[in-house]
Amino acid sequence: MACMNEDGQWIVLMGLLVAVGLFFLALIINQSALVGQTTAEGVLEFPKNDIRDLREAVFDYVDEFDHEEDTESKAVRDDIIAISLERKNAVVDFSVGDPEDISGRDLHPITIHYNNGVTEYHETVYY
Amino acid sequence: MSLDFLAGFTIFMLALIMVVSMVPGLLAGLQSSGIDYDAVAYRTGVILVEDPGWPVYPPWEMKAGAYKDEIERMGLAASKETPNILLSTKVDAFFNGTFFASEDYRSKAIFGDIPYSYNFSLRSEDGTYNNATGDPLPPGYGYGYIRRAVKIKEPGVAVINGSFAPQYTSSTANQEFIVRLNFSQLLDPERGPAYRIDPRTEPVSITITDFGAYRNMTLPTPENATLKNVTFWKMDPTVPMPRFTRIPFSYNTEDPDLYTLFIDGNQNNLVPDTEVSENISLVLKPAATSIFTLDQNSILEVRFNFEDDDYPHTNITGIHHYDYNTTNVTCPPLKPAVLEVAIW
Amino acid sequence: MVNDRGQLYTMEGVAAGVIMLLTAYIVVSTTSVYTAGDTHIPDMQLEQLGSDVLAMMDTPDTKGEVSDLEIFVSTNNETGFKNAFLGYCNAKAIGADNLHMSANVTYRHASSNEIRDYPLVEPDNTWTGRESAVRVTRWVELEGNPSGVSGMDPSRPRAVLVEVLLWRA
User: Is the Cβ of A127 closer than 8 Å to some Cβ of chain B?
Assistant: First the structure.
């Protein structure tokens, strides 16, 4: 051992240090990108506006058709389900029940289901 | 290899590892600040536009003076079911530069450990709202920003003009004119919060114009009539044998935080005993309504009592219903506006 | 005793490494690297604004009225929709923004069970196809078919999806 030439040691050592340094830097840059991505994507990917819009569309539907099932209301319901799947990539379903007496008001129980693969949303609301 | 080299190098490496492990925190803090501003601006925008604030009843905007600490959160929305519909009373309180200090905006609207600089501005399409608060924007794009499209809801006004005169004059009755607010009607859940008249959060405005049309036209024709007093009465129809009771209130103190009463343009208290020839304008602030201890079934009456010593100078009488009938109360249409939040 | 001349070299190497790290740190922290994550933020802002504007256009100013959005779609009013939308979008406290838009209406063709769309607002000449545009949507329920649109099945109450592409020129 003692006879070995150790002159090259520092080169190896320095190489190692630089490699470690670069690794850390890469990690940091990666993380900083992640910060911006997660905050903005958290907003973009959570379909708050879509769900609100869907709820209002369902309420409009109830305003228009009550809980009746006829060809016209069924067509509108099919519109919402089919267009959601095609254009919003979201599986949507909703149903409107017979009005019930909720503290003196006749309200329809509405169940809404929404799933776009990332976010799932289920709700029973009286309207 | 020498032992002292090994020992020294081990210590050195440990120190280096410590330093290096601290670097990411140092760097991340610097790198993400710009990104963080946008997130904070977004969050503040959501709080302002989609949240009515806390507490809700009585609303935070009524927590004046010493009660300011009770405000948890300043939101401008009319209710949480109506995002983007702002209430004008909340807007006025929020942009009231004398009432809130920058520390209040930071702790009740922005929320964050860092004392961010901010600039909030609200401008309506027609220019009636043009409010801003905070520091001037820094040059360039070095700040987080969000812009929200909103609509502003303004309180309704009951204008009783000359056209009501045939309905509200009678020479036989006593000269008492009543404006009645039926809370169970006003707060009917059928009516969404965006279009609701809620005296608990919005001022009630009663304006009697063209008072000449209500004058007693028998000779000698008087020039004016005397408004003796204005009193508030309430009734709870849910109790057995309901009847109106006079609400105890400091009627003879002028308090613009609770009400304003203008007679022919001059401010008065509620016991004016003053002659009126043109118009009467009463604005009852929600702060007053909240101390009346009313619930969603109460009926509130505002009674204008006219009395003259010699003979009745006016024939005004009757009950004006402050309700959703558009001839009785004018509800102004929602005003489109934009709210901008900048954080840096 | 081994030759310990290498120690000095090691220290030098470490020092050089630290200097390089420091240099890299200074370079990274002074020049702001426009990372992929940053591009999401303007998208988020635009999407939020667009959704807000559509929601507000769908909110009537007084109770009982039909919303502007429903009127524009049911009468197929291109200029009305465009002016209302852009007027709202570009409004700022000071000055105006420079946003542009196009809009499509998606409907279901019942007899063929296809999802079809027709343009409501054509893109203007700032549209090159390379903009990072965002898409915002809003459901509109119509009493009957919108006027002046050919190729729809017989008139019936229908739900259509208004899709707006929004970009900054």
Answer: no
Residue A23: which domain range? 9-45
Whether the per-residue pLDDT at A86 is higher than 60: the answer is: yes
Name the residue range of residue B182's domain: 157-321
pLDDT in tens, A71-81: 888 999 999 99
Residues B185 and B219 in one domain: yes
- In a shared domain, residues A62 and A109: yes
Do residues B149 and B164 both lie within one domain?
A: no
Query: Mind telling me how many Å the CA of C121 is from chain A's nearest CA?
Result: 18
The answer to whether C7 contacts B38, with C-beta atoms less than 8 Å apart, is: no
Shortest CA gap B34–chain A (Å): 9
Which amino acid is residue C128, in one-letter code? T
Is residue B240 a part of any domain in this protein? yes
Residues A86 and A40 in one domain: no
Residue B4 has pLDDT above 90, yes or no: no
Are B146 and B166 in a shared domain? no
Q: How far apart are CA B308 and CA B310, in angstroms?
A: 6
Structure-model confidence comparison of residues C164 and A10, the more confident one: C164
Instruction: Give C108-117 pLDDT, tens digit per residue.
Output: 998 888 899 9
Of the candidates A25, A28, A57, which has its C-beta nearest C159's C-beta? Answer: A57
pLDDT digit string, tens, across residues B85-118: 999 999 998 998 778 888 888 888 888 777 888 9
- Shared domain check, B166 and B135: no
Q: Check whether residue A93 and residue A112 sit in a common domain.
A: yes
Neighbour order of strands in the sheet with B335-343 = B85-87, B144-153, B335-343, B118-124, B130-134
Mutate to test the interface with B, among A39, A56, A103 (most CBs of B within 10 A): A39
Residues of chain C contacting residue A66, judged by C-beta atoms under 8 Å apart: none
Residues A72 and A104 in one domain: yes
Please indicate if any CB of chain C lies within 8 Å of the CB of B121: yes
Q: Do A52 and B38 touch (CB under 8 A)?
A: no
> How many domains would you assign to chain A?
2
| pLDDT tens-digit map of C22-77 | 888 777 666 555 554 456 777 888 899 999 999 999 999 888 889 999 999 999 99
Residue A111 included in any domain: yes
